[in-house]
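Why this split exists: single-chain examples teach little about how molecules sit against one another. For that reason, every record in the complexes split bundles all components of an assembly together and asks for one structure covering all of them. Below is a record exactly as it appears in the raw files.
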Amino acid sequence: MKGVKTIFNISLKARFGSLKLDLGYKGSKRVLGVFGVSGAGKTTFLECLAGLRKVMSGQITVAGEIWLDTETSCFVPTEKRHIGFVPQDHLLFPHKNVLGNLEAGKARALQGGRDFQSILKKVVAVLELEPLLDRSIDQLSGGERQRVSLGRALCSGPQLLLLDEPLASLDLRMRKKILPFLIRIKEAFELPIVVVSHNPTELQVLCDEVLILENGRNVMTGSPNELFASDLLLNVAKERGFENVFPGTIIEKSDQVDCLSLSGKNGNICIQIPPTDSLLGDRVLASIGSENVLVGLERPRGLSARNCLSATISRVENAGTRWLVHALVVDAVPEFVVEVTYDAIEALHLESGLRIYLVFKTSSVTTLNG
Amino acid sequence: MPTIYETVSSTLLWAVVASLLVALPGLTIAYLLARREFFGKKVLSTFTTLPLVLPPTAVGYLLLRLFADDGWLGRERLGFDLDIILSWKAVVIACSIMSFPIFVRTARVAFEEVNPRLERMGRTLGMGRQKVFLSITLPLASRGLIAATLLGFTRALGEFGATIILAGNIPGRTQTLASALFSAQQSGNETLANQLLGVALLVGFIAVYTTERLASKRSLRKEQTG
């Protein structure tokens, strides 16, 4: 790819206990997701990137800096790698308060010629940490700890942010609150990020490219939407199915429902979502499970479901025991993935190019903010 | 005859000096045993524990052999006299050796209780090993280390068997609280023996009570953050 700067150039071979890590990845996308079931080697991979584990052979180059090259016996130790590592259990320093934790990496930020105070100010603003600064760690909730952990990593002036299952230790309600902060970090800090997760939705929302790990090997690489609708992923993420995730803006609010405008290249569509705490004009993420969308050949009438979008089928694919209809919503860009039975495909003669209506209830839309 | 005050204050002084002597090598060995894997680790661990299980008089006799004129650290071998035996230095050395194991064992547990992943987090934030030790490991282990120091100090304070062999029991010169109590009891001076017993009880109680308090705070904090 001419003109596009390679950010990650990684090849690793290592054995840790029963896990054999053998993978290679080269890419120019800024936010890389690593997906796999537990035991696939995701965290180990991250720890190798961080220099916390020794590998037998391989090389790691991130944004032009060589951190590891076993051929030339080059090994940059963890403390010199300029990384920000956020573990799933946050691991804050219990003997320091929140500010003390944020300042833990100050020396490195200063070494890198950064203005620490301005970084700190930006991090505190982005992660809304101002009211927490004087608190001790045991006074923080799980979500607050995770935010402080993210803040601590960012304040050290990293050149690469490593997130290990950033939402795994939180309950569903907290996840919804922290995910927007991760999106903010992605937008506010121009940093390469590697996110490890076993949750496809998180990766769809955050990543530009996803690497699938299975038994320590990367079996697939591609854009998150492409990968997560594929045969392989549906089998891996069997219990979850596919989540359609779209960013949108709140354009109307009432006690009963909010209206969310999803914008694409060719215009906007509006959907109704359950009321949120967000304000008019706020950007939120809407998530709709592929199994919660109905397909109609005509615009349905006399139906309680409030959302009905006109769409064209772009492809129909078989994913193991499931059948997926990919549909392009006419007025906008987002491609919906809808799970149907083979019976439905036969009965409705669903095939690419067919004009359909996608119907879903307001309450089947989950918002990921507020 | 020295007064009780003189005996107690010199005993306290010798125990403090012994504790200071033990601190640095004790900390180093405790940290190595807690955090590193190396050849001979078990042997080192055994040697540091040995004075705890041997009869104190055996340790005293071993030290006596070591510092005797023909010993490894004696006048004949070194070419000069260290002038240890039957001096206050002998008291300090005997107390140090006898308190070393309890200091190292307690400090080792204190270091082992620090989550090594917190130390690794420090490294990801750009801290070198030394900085990680000073700003993460040491503060997190501090309560346990204070407890180790107190326990080592009380051990030094009550040392008798090794001291009496290496330093003797010379009133006003090498007599400690423990040996003074022994002498008082042997000579039938009950008043003095009772007074010395009172002081010993008081100092021992304060030290152990403080250690207990530190330990309970530590386990409370572990529960909260663990």
